[in-house]
Structure formats: C-alpha cells, structure tokens
Amino acid sequence: MTECPCGSGSAFEQCCGPFLEGAPAPTPEALxxxxxxxxxxxxxxxxxxTHASDVKDGFNRSAAESTANSVEWVSLEILNTAEGGTNxxxxxxxxxxxxxxNGELMVHHERSNxxxxxxxxxxxxxxxxxxxxxxxVEKVGRNEPCPCGSGKKYKKCCAA
Amino acid sequence: xxxxxxxxxxxxCCYGQLPLAIDDTLAHADRxxxxxxxxxxxxxGRSFDITAELGITIKLRKRKLAAVQISPCAYLPPTLxxxxxxxxxxxxxxxxxxxxxxxxxxxxxxxxADQADLLIPRSEWMCDTSPDAPVVYRDKSILDRQNYDAExxxxxxxxxxxxxxxxxxxxxxxxLRMEIQKVAMKPSGGQVIVSFSTLxxxxxxxxxxxxxxxxxxxxxxxxxxxxNDPTLTDFHKRYADMAGEWGKIxxx
Lengths: 160, 252
Ligand code: SF4
Ligand code: SF4
Ligand SMILES: [Zn+2]
Prior knowledge:
The complex is a heterodimer.
Chain A: H1 17-20, H2 28-41, H3 44-49, H4 53-56, H5 61-70, E1 72-83, E2 90-101, E3 104-117, E4 120-128
Chain B: E1 2-4, E2 18-19, H1 22-27, E3 34-42, H2 48-54, E4 56-59, E5 65-74, H3 99-103, E6 135-138, E7 141-142, H4 146-172, H5 174-185, E8 192-195, H6 208-225, H7 233-250
Antiparallel strand pairs in B: 1-6, 2-5, 3-5, 3-8, 4-5, 6-7
Helix pairs in contact in B: 4-5, 6-7
C-alpha cells in the first residue's frame, strides 16, 4: 500500500486518490488534504481545478509549479476546521504544512476559506499565519460609553 | 503661482532607482534588474495619505502607523545610469519608455498639489526653470496633465494587485514586517528591497520560467559591473543573490 502523502494513515487510493481523479471532496478538510497531496505529487491540474470560479483567473500556475518543485514536503497537520458541514456553503480549514527548502525546515501555516460551488467544495483564499480570535483586553476609557450598553459614560456606570 | 520647466535632455535624471508600473516591469523584464521596493512613510509625513491609498499600512509601536509604498523598481545605484541611456544623454527606448519617465518631472506617487519641489532640479541637473522656459505648473495644477493622469490611473490599477500582495507577504514573512517596522522608526527612513519573484504568483499571466530567463543575464551582468567598486558592495551582493535565485527558478 502507498500511504497517502496527506498523512491520514490510509492508502492513497482510499484517501486523496479519488479526489485527484475528479471525485468531489465531501468536506473542505478532505479537499484541503487532496490539494496538499496534489502539491506533493506535482499535480497542478488538481490545484487549478479546485479553485473557486472568481479566483481561477488570478492563479499563476507556473509560479505554483515552480514553488512546488523547489520544496520537499514533509508533513501536513490539520489544526482546526470550522463549518464545512453538509448544510454549510462555506468552511475554513487551518493547517500547517511542513516542508524543506534549501535545506531549511519551514512551515506554511494558513487558515483557508472554502466555498461550495455547484455542489463541490472550492478553495477561495487564505490568511497566512493567522492569530487566534482577538481577545478583547483593551481598557475602556473612563469617559467612553460603558461596555454594558447602558449609554452612560463608563465612569458613571459600571466603573462607579 | 507659476512654475516653468523645460528639459534640454542632459540625461542626468536617468540615474539610479526607477520605480515602474507593473506593466512596465513586464514590458522591460529583459532590460532592467527588477525588485520590489518597500518604502515606509510615517504618519504625519506629507505623502502619508496617498501612500496609504496606493500601498498598505503597518502598525508601529505606541499605536503609530506607517504607510508603505510598494513599488516595483529597476534597482540601480545612484551612480549608475539607466541601461537605456545613450552616450549622448538621450533615451534609447523613447517610444516605449516607462510611464514613470513620461511623467517626469512630475510624479503620480504624489498629489497634484504637492509637485512644486519636484520642479527644483537637483545639483548637476540641467533642467531649465528660468522664466524663459514654458510654464508647466500653475496654482498647484499641472498644465499638461495627460501623462500624470495616465500614471496615476496605472498606479491605482496596480494597487489592486500590490495591496493584497503586500498584506500576504507581511503575513507570510514575519521578519519582513519587523524589518519594515525598524526602517519606519528610523529618523532617516529607508527602504526594504524584496525579490521580484515574490510578486510573480500575483501576476497570473506571467510565466515565471520565461521571466527568470530574462532576469538571470541582467542580474549576472550587474553583479559583474558592481563587483570591483567598494561603494557598491551591497548592490553587488543583491545582484549576485538574485542571479542565483533566478538561475534556480529557470533551471540553470
Ligand atoms: S528608460 Fe529612458 S527616460 Fe527612462 S530612465 Fe531609462 S533612459 Fe531615462
Ligand atoms: S535632469 Fe532635467 S534636463 Fe536633464 S534629462 Fe532630466 S529633466 Fe531633462
Ligand atoms: Zn490523503
């Protein structure tokens, strides 16, 4: 058995293989995994075909191919997924793809957005090195509106 | 207030770094050694607003902001002429010269009302600004504005590519963000040079292999040209690095 490059532990034929052949991926995560596998195998057709319609035109295939060829992929780790269920039309997948370039180990950490188009999941765009949800730690000024929503100044309301 | 200007084509302004519209980089990729130049302008600086509009902003310490101009450029030391400048001081590609050169002495990187100091020739420049020269700028308006407008329109179109490119690269390369922040805090300012290869993925129609084949011989030639000049060590190293990078991409 050839283990699937996406690191699922399953055989390629039972994992990303069918998606690279054109079968629709059931979830954004499955599509993301298959796109990683496509990068590993140099299958740029799959990368291009799984872009959302409005970003396809902006895709530079030669540059993606050149990058794919210049790196040695090491591993894929799915860090987080959100939405992307059977009733959703959008979903996000956060992942860390490790690779070696010029002898150095590097990480591509991205939170990708996917959209369902005519029943099939498609890659829209991504945020590199996303931080966690912003925590609200900033101080409220004493003369600012009170965060409780009373409409009064903070110092005359909850701060009093 | 009226300002006069005419150009007796001394060729002295055709030296050093030349900012280029994206289309001009592509049209002249076999001529100029190309980079992407990142230039921070701090809040309160005179061209902050226009720079933020055409480029991006970046947070600094103490809740300060810098606008960053992201400009594709021909990367040349101030002492070296444009490769197209002929021995008699004329432009060798006059019919197809970049928008930047057409708009001279004005600049679409600045607001129209903020052009006056661009009409003061630097020392050695032979521009005629005497009353005998034609009036070109009156009450903060450019009289023949065709080239200025064309360059500004191009910069706005380029911004649609350069802004998301800039945000993406800053997110991707945290050390670049730190470097820009450092330069922005310096009283004397400065620039950060980024390889043009980082921009190619954003230019969908550009074949990166053909581009690499164009840039490799140019970078190699400039690396050689700057090898023995101790004042150009930084430039030499850049050219050599970029020759190495394009060579790798092009498969040499
Ligand atoms: S292209 Fe022509 S006008 Fe522009 S800098 Fe070079 S020589 Fe001067
Ligand atoms: S320095 Fe002035 S006179 Fe000389 S070429 Fe440039 S614009 Fe013309
Ligand atoms: Zn797989």
